[in-house]
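re: that complex we talked abt at group meeting.

here r the seqs, copy pasted straight from the sheet so there may be weird spacing, ignore it
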Amino acid sequence: MTVRATAYAAAAFVLGLVLTGCSNERSDDNVLTVARAVLPTAPDGPAQAPTPEQVAQYVDLALASESGPMALMQFEQTGNTAVLHQIGANRPYRTWTTWGQSEGRTVSSRGGMVTATRGLGRDLMSSDVDAVLELVSARRPGRVWHQLRFLDGENQIYAIKADCAIARGAATHVQAGAIDRPAVVMTATCAAGRHVFENTYAVDAAGRVLRAEQWLGPHHGQALFQQLR
Amino acid sequence: MIRKFCITAAAAAAAIAPARIGADPLITEFTNNYGTPGQLLDMPTAEMAPDGQLATTFNYFDGFSKSTLTFQILPRLTGSFRYSGTDNLTPAFSTFYDRSFDLRFRLLDETAYSPAVAVGLQDFIGTGLLGAEYLVATKSLGRRLRLTGGIGWGRLGSYNGLGSTGSRPAFNPNSLGGDFTADMWFRGDYALFGGASFNVTDKLVFSAEYSSDAYDQEVSVGIFERKSPWNFGVSYEVLDDVFLSAYSLHGSEIGARLNLSLNPGNAPAPGGTELAPLPVRVRPDGSAADLGWTLESGQETQVAQSVAQGLDGQGIDLEGLRVVGRAAHVTIRNETYDIGSQALGRTLRVLSRTLPDPVETLNVTLVRKGMPASTLVFSRTDLEQLEHAPAQNALAAARFRDSLSFAALPDRMPGTYPRFTWSAGPYVRTSLFDPADPVRADAGIRVSGQYDFGAGWFANGQLAQKVTGDLSGANKTNNSVLPRVRTDVPFYAQTDEPTLERLTLAKYGRPGPNLYSRVTVGYLEWMYAGASAELLWKPVDSRLALGVEANYVEPRDFDQQFGLRSRATLGGTIPRFNGHGSVYYDLGYGFHTQLDVGRYLAGDWGATVALDREFANGWEIGAFLTKTDVSAQQFGEGSFDKGIRISMPLSWLTGKPTQKSAGTTLRPLIRDGGARLGVEGRLYETVRDAHRPEIAKSWDKFWR
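got the structure back, here u go
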């Protein structure tokens, strides 16, 4: 079911029942904010990914203005692109947020693979990538589980546990931001019920994933996570 | 130009994959003329709606209307409430309006070789105008064709009867209705019915049926012509969850039907669209090991300030902070998040980022109405280690304690109180099911304010000004033989002046471990002023709670200003005292029950039983009934008080955290028996959300 009809029905139910016009309370839900959330917005138009030149320019600007690890994220479906900087480190995990904007959206990674998102809507809550990471960073083929967890409409976690065949592909060269290094492409061909996806990872000789093209769930689909420094 | 990566509501909307016809093909989102799940017309089937589905169906053919709300209570159990109108059925009313309830239970699921079998009661509490019982079997042949055959009694046994099982009282339009019609169930003539539906596509269905409903009552008064037992229809899903149907009935009538559905389990934006929390700050190795560390006295204010700021950024208010040795204790007020685990998760992350490294134990006390309602105890090391693990690992590491089990709670920070909050906005008040005009409503402006003195003292007021509406035209004739505690409602809707809906002073407190108390005095609700006192026992880990409430009331003037009126009414004197003992129990599996026993407003003694299905996202759909020592005869039309209630969390709709919800209680009739006082801020609902069982239900949002 889509939001549209559900929301119409629910909105009819809500109208006049709870909505305030204005208040000094913490939550400012009122007739207008709810209407904005519920009514269909004009379609985004064809998502337009920035050109590689635009991205490169922006990346240079970001790298020049700040030291420390940076990364690039790009969603295939929408073309939405952002340069990220690191705001948290918890053992092997790193948490990143948009550089140059305080958007309240974050991405977490482990060894160069995306393990979680926050604030995007339909977030990837957590992942088990240990086994995938072990093979990929050793640039070895094999068969492992890759588990992704999401919240459902009742705020309960459900997991998509994908069976992934990891294969070693061609040698490549990763050049992005401050990174300019030879790497090997590792592909993970995964299946979990009706979800079938292919992740690719470019791994350097030290076993670091420099670039990951990963499936982040049925909603967000494929996304690129590229280390810049 | 780089586009920021943001997800709009529209984009979030686009991808909810329909979890439609799945493993069990005998699920349908279509409803029939009676508004129950099924792909036939007047005849029932053994089909069920998806679990939790809430469907509203409007059905009309010349002079006959039915509006039905159906809820798939359990995967095998469906309940419906219906309001139907029939023109010229009886001489007394130009339109005979009638309320009815249905239940359908699936006895057997379909297998490869055997059909699904269901048993159903139609209009089983009511006048019995639509009354029928049936046993029905439905079998799918391939993906598209479904065949149904059944045996029916009552309306469904009225045409071409095969035989009879006892006698069935005839329909009596003058009966009080509203009582269980058990003396009729599966009695009288029985007959066979059947039909077939064919799904041309997932969205388009053709149906044909052989009806065993003779429309006896309608034919006998000449408002219906039954030329044939055959009915035909076509249904189409015009938009997602919006179904439109057209049909022909008995060769003489053409009708139409509209069905709007939603499923509380399918939120428009699962997981919410709120912004990200800040990550946990992990302490450098060794920095936490300073066992002899203490916070210097001057530092505490500084730390408190940064904690308060951090929490404020997450929409949470800090009331107090105390650091003793390596343990920190904060008291917080969460007025932002409807999901308790999320408020706690965000608070703990702020603490990890603001408290000095040696602090290891984090105690977070949730304050509700000035009462410390529960304390979460969490180890900072666990918080650091579990940040990227599944949320349930963090639940295993969480401990909930009664806040009173701590020797001392943090002092309130200066400037926390007093606090004044207000809101203003439109309101709509409806009156449903008045036979002269089934939907009446007033609309106006409402202003409310709350002054929080601190320490559990609250002053609360609400003013309303009607702008327009027709509630004042409601029928004022009243035959109630009980003290008119509620049936005088039309008189309260006459005024065009501003009304004082509520003006109270309340004190909440914690008289002892596991105990919570409330005293409220003033203008308690629009009809009553007085005093209300309540005591609740609820351990922080318990699914069981016990409560007592005693009330002293005086009826308010009809103009709802400051005056009171005499307690004497035409039906008797309104007693001053009423009250209840209550048992609340969370049954698990998403069900909650409440039993109230005591004295009601009219002085009648009895009990109310309520059963609600509660979704972890905050949706609640339930039913209640009250039986008191008032006889059905004294009670009047409806026989006893009952109703259904629905509450929807606004966060479900908007995808943003908020504690607001939209709710409604549908009572077929408002009478004087089994009526309760309406007091704001009863204890159970105030305290319950802060306790472990409720927080654990949606713990998976802890890291969101």
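couple things i noticed - Chain B touches chain A through 93 residues (CB under 8 Å). Residues 297-313 of chain B form the longest helix (17 residues).
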